[in-house]
Amino acid sequence: MITLHINGLPVSVEQGTTLLEAAQFMGFPIPTLCHKEGLSPYGACRLCLVEIGEGPRARLVSSCTYPAEEGLQVRTASSRVIQARRIILELLLASCPQSKTIQDLASAHGIQQQRFKQEYENCILCGLCVRMCEEQMMAKAIGFRSRGEKRSIGTPFDIQSEDCRRCGACLYICPACELRCTYTEPERAICGGCANLRPPCLEKEGFEDMMCYMDPCVACEIKKD
Amino acid sequence: MNPKQIEKIIDDHHNGNQAGLISLLEEIQAKYSYLPEEALRIVSQKTGTSLVDLYGVATFYRAFSLRPRGKHLISVCLGTACHVRGGEIIASEFQRQLAIKPGETTLDHEISLETVNCLGACALGPIVVADGHYFSNVTVKKVEEIIHKARAGLDRIDIRSDERIFPIEVSCSRCNHSLMDKSRYIDGYPSIRVTVSFNLKHGWLRLSCLYGSFSVDYEYQVPLDEVVNFFCPYCHAELRSSSFCMDCGAPMVPLLVRAGGMVQICSRRGCKGHMLDLTGVNV
């Protein structure tokens, strides 16, 4: 057993436990985006970062990939952590404003505006779909390609992969892509309404009822009533 | 592309793990100047590495190309030192003269242009590398000359001064009639005339008699990687030995050397496999 301190409280965990698991065990909330139970930790989104160490040697690490160490001092909500997390959320919003997951996370952290150049990507390269396909579906049909700003996720040669069974797990787990729409009736999930989406807030009266008030809004819930 | 050759490259490399993957891909790229899709699929099957991972590696490294590249590669350095000395202007001049962008190949599949970030010879900048030959202090004026030299072939061996290359006289291994043809010269020497047939086409093929030169002349264009049947133009016997090429597995073509011994050449177009057997000759 390893004893470490999270936010000043001592906690004993087993060897190999990550800081995220230890903090969640203690009931300290840490937001995550690219971390899902059943998939290997990846540390791509950096939302789960926490501050470890003391004084000038204190640093930020991603808690989902950092294993617990004896005597470690962990702070899950120091001002430095909160600030870094807010910047990350703003950057995520700047690339994927239409993602409900990101919007919800942002509003939970009190972010109402992002100050970067607005882009409309449909992928944040969190690698959830790649890990889902490989680790849970045992297919390995999609993967990362290229690098740097050209990095993308897809099948080899951009053609239908023979390994793909069209199970839809990648769409299911994706926090950013457009096909994620679940409409208001679960049985009619993936209604295709997103494909010809018009900002519904323009026609609706109850603007406050809408899920998002981020600027600009493109993916408000289509039908609320 | 020949699946057998790919499989041979893999067999030579593969030792049951992913460790040799990059050198394996390099080897394939060296042979075809790019990584054909079919080749990646064969590698995936033979090594057990998933196609996704292979594709990821092939697209990650700039050294690998998934599209055919030209015969000659021109790299323009745009590193910091070269950049401040005008590398950008050199690069745009190459783009203008070749009418292609970096990363593209000219329509005649002769020249590929690419930009690189540093070649490690900053004091000599701006640097341009064509087929492994460095050109230093390049100016816009020199661009045309470099393209011209690259097209002409910078790696060409001088057949007059290189001692590894020597002329041989050969004759048919069946009727012993000389195959030398003094009516047509290749590389400045009488050519070797044989008859070839492939795909219902039947015509003459002239080979350079220089051992080490692979210049050929033909009546019908033989597609690359095509295995053709060789015949003696005098006794019309097929020239085919019982042995197979060490490189690609195609049947070998035996030719008697006038001075004694035998030379065997691979019957696959583009394959440079050959054997020289000079047993019983006092050299």
Give the integer mean of the pLDDT values of chain A: 80
Distance between the termini of chain B: 39 Å
Order of helices and strands of chain A: EEHEEEHHHEEH
Tell me roughly what share of residues is in helical segments of chain A. Answer: 10-25%
Under CATH, the topology of the domain at 2-77 in chain A can be stated as Ubiquitin-like (UB roll)
Helix segment tally of chain A: 5
Largest interface comes to: A-B, 13 and 12 residues
Cα-atom radius of gyration of chain A: 20 Å
How much strand of chain B?
A: 25-35%
H/E element order of chain B: HHHHEHHEEEHEEEEEEEEEEEE
The radius of gyration computed from the alpha-carbon positions of chain B, rounded to a whole number of angstroms, is 22 Å
- The total number of structural domains of chain B is 3
The best one-word shape of chain B is globular
Any overview of this molecule?
- The complex is a heterodimer of chains A (225) and B (283).
- Chain A has 225 residues and is α+β, with helices and mostly antiparallel strands.
- Among the domains of chain A are: 2-77, Ubiquitin-like (UB roll); 122-177, 2-Layer Sandwich (Alpha-Beta Plaits).
- Helix content of chain A is 21%, strand content 12%.
- Chain A has helices spanning 19-26, 79-95, 100-108, 128-136, 169-173; strands at 2-6, 9-13, 49-52, 59-62, 73-75, 143-145, 152-154.
- In chain A, helix 2 runs antiparallel to helix 3.
- The longest helix of chain A is centred in the middle third of the chain and has 17 residues, at 79-95.
- Chain A is globular, with a radius of gyration of 20 Å.
- Mean pLDDT of chain A is 80; it is low at 178-183 and 188-225.
- With 283 residues, chain B is α+β, with helices and mostly antiparallel strands.
- Chain B folds into 3 domains: 3-60, no CATH class; 72-152, 3-Layer(aba) Sandwich (Glutaredoxin); 166-277, no CATH class.
- Chain B contains 7 helices and 16 strands.
- In chain B, strands 7, 8, 9, 11, 12 and 13 form a 6-stranded antiparallel sheet that branches.
- Chains A and B meet through strand 6 of A and helix 4 of B.
